[in-house]
Amino acid sequence: MCRSQPMRWPSGKAWFLVVEQARAVDPGCQSEAEGRGHPDTALDIQGCCGSRAAGWCGRTPSSLTLLGLETPAPPSSMAPYHIRKYQERDRPRVLDLFSKGMEEHAPTTFRHILKLPRTLALLLGVPLALFLASGSWLLVSVTSLALLTALRFFSKYPWIQFKVLCLRSDLSDITKSYLSEPGSCFWVAEADGQVLGMVGVLPAAESPLRREQLQLFHLCVASECRGQGVAKALVRTVLQFARDQGYSQVVLHTTMLQRSAVALYQRMGFQKTGQFFSSLNWRLFAIPSCVFVYPLPSAQASQAQGQAGGP
Ligand SMILES: CC(C)(COP(=O)(O)OP(=O)(O)OC[C@H]1O[C@@H](n2cnc3c(N)ncnc32)[C@H](O)[C@@H]1OP(=O)(O)O)[C@@H](O)C(=O)NCCC(=O)NCCS
């Protein structure tokens, strides 16, 4: 279905997306897919919700169909994927993707914790104190090892805690949380009948009624399918949905430790507007949540119009 190894390719190398269909079929989740110039090379996908839009991505030129034009065959490295609305049968795979997507940040968190001054003080201070008290190198070695093991274990903790929180709240019933009200949605990217990516949106808690901010949640792509534009296509689906639903901003929270996600959001035009500690654990580990905002052009245009004295 996908490349067996995750990979990144340098910016500017050729890549392809095929948009086959662009008609929305779901009134509660309406958007359309369209081909447009990609900053690097050729074509890109913009939004496809419950539609039959499909994409192929690859590194080498091959065939391509765009809205009825001459169609090159998709590269063999990746099967065509499409983005559609979540269905209950997707639940096990979606939860699995989410769990793995969170757990994978533990090693980065461990490295981050090791660099904190308070950790260095602990790792040097405790063994030194023990050595001065006992003169035993063995005790020093065992203590250092035990401290490192404990830190490695605790580096998983904030992610596990976040995972449990989500599994008990919005992800406990995805249909109810994301698909029962207009103005919210949950999509999956699917290829060969297998879910390989996901993302959800809800009106931001601060402005649930005013349709101002749409908040993006749980963007995740299977590790073996990364670096092929799937997340980008999912985010574009969100942006198109937000436009269609009349939101003025798309907002999301992430941490700077989620480096791929931060790179993706920044590359797509999201701006970091602030940061905060979502709980004591995150503060303890010095991992702030960052707020990223994508102002929608229609909202920007009306703001500019307002400033210029327009209606
Ligand atoms: C973040 C994530 C969704 C990206 O998925 P993806 O399908 O690999 O992303 P894409 O292929 O669409 O990449 C789009 C852009 O993101 C950036 N990007 C993504 N992964 C990157 C990486 N590892 N290093 C640098 N840039 C990266 C690039 O700018 C890329 O654009 P480019 O290829 O044109 O340069 C994926 O890594 C993931 O699921 N991570 C774990 C879960 C997670 O942390 N989710 C974020 C929740 S806020």
From TrEMBL:
<keyword id="KW-0812">Transmembrane</keyword>
<keyword id="KW-0808">Transferase</keyword>
<feature type="transmembrane region" description="Helical">
    <location>
        <begin position="120"/>
        <end position="148"/>
    </location>
</feature>
<feature type="domain" description="N-acetyltransferase">
    <location>
        <begin position="146"/>
        <end position="297"/>
    </location>
</feature>
<dbReference type="InterPro" id="IPR016181">
    <property type="entry name" value="Acyl_CoA_acyltransferase"/>
</dbReference>
<keyword id="KW-0472">Membrane</keyword>
<dbReference type="Pfam" id="PF00583">
    <property type="entry name" value="Acetyltransf_1"/>
</dbReference>
<dbReference type="InterPro" id="IPR050769">
    <property type="entry name" value="NAT_camello-type"/>
</dbReference>
<keyword id="KW-1133">Transmembrane helix</keyword>
<dbReference type="InterPro" id="IPR000182">
    <property type="entry name" value="GNAT_dom"/>
</dbReference>
<protein>
    <submittedName>
        <fullName>N-acetyltransferase 8</fullName>
    </submittedName>
</protein>
<dbReference type="GO" id="GO:0008080">
    <property type="term" value="F:N-acetyltransferase activity"/>
</dbReference>
